[in-house]
Fold this protein.
Amino acid sequence: MKISPFKVEEWMNRYESGALYDLTTTCIKPLTINELCGKSGLSVFDIPLTYGDITGSERLKNNIKSLYTQQELNNITVTHGAIGANQLIFYSLLEKGDEVVCIVPTYQQHYSIPKSIGADVKLYFLKEENNWLPNLEELSQILTSKTKLLCINNPNNPTGSVIPNWLLQDIVELAQKNNTWILSDEVYRGLNLVGNPYSISVADIYEKGISVGSMSKTYSLPGLRLGWVCAREDLINEINHQRQYNTISVGILDDYFASIALENKNWIQERNFNIMLSGMKSFTDWLTKEPFVECVIPNGGTTALVKYKKSMPSRELCRRLQNRTGVALLPGETMEMEGYVRIGFCAIALKSALEMFSEFLHQ
Ligand SMILES: Cc1ncc(COP(=O)(O)O)c(C=O)c1O
């Protein structure tokens, strides 16, 4: 199978580890095992390292179920991160010639995997003037009864936009009218900055809604490599059928730590919300005094998409900035958004890094 290079991941593999100030990050300072287990007083040393329950333990699935209103254990399967979840969904649903509409910018998996399967992929670009939200009228011109699958990412990476519940309902109605599945990548669900931290999940409001979740962002445990899919039972069965070939299980330790984290989600969320608020303050303070940039302020997630006023391709800008200052940003081109950079506003030492970015812009 031929597939396009995953531009964001390739860039980060090359530049992230050498950065002094890593603003490419989408994660909120990952938790240590001591921080996680210290709260519960549990020891992991006596756990036999078996595969564990193949599609996720009952304990873990019950904890995942508690994040939704309409899911039962047989609507859930556990995967190698959200990246594993997305891939399994595409392999389970799509065939050559199927039509897919993908709302961009987003995680590249959502259009490159369908393309590699031979699907006819139509990209719908979010616009800054719509606050990076889909416009229903425009979307309804692209999404038709031929569309098998619509891919959305809510809250959105890289823009930090959060689809309001009323608009999500409208999108669901449009999909329902056209008998279209919706894959909603919800890895940043629980990280809304305004109102309820958790938006409605598509799997809870639509029979053909597929929700993907993960421990990586909201629960600060990217090293667990644990995600999940919530969907109709027949699709979960198909995913489990595909899953036999590339997963077996996520491993008993990942399952165990994820259960502990979800049982302790209140303090993790409080911790993360405080990091987000303080990052957002440094970020917005910087925006108001930096004339070389413009940005729609994120309502959630961990990243912002920033337009810069300098005539330089984004890859070149990021390369030069990092060479000169050690500050790593993600070039917009890697997300089909030339002229922009992505900034992780929960990054460590954000304030100093933004000041260095400003100095660079003013040179
Ligand atoms: C939108 C989106 N989906 C999926 C992933 C992959 O998440 P995971 O670490 O759970 O595999 C990422 C990672 O950055 C992401 O931003």
Remarks:
- The first strand starts at residue 21 and ends at 22.
- The chain has 13 helices and 13 strands.
- The pocket of pyridoxal-5'-phosphate is lined by residues 26, 81-83, 107, 153, 157, 185, 187, 214, 216, 222, 227 (CB under 6 Å).
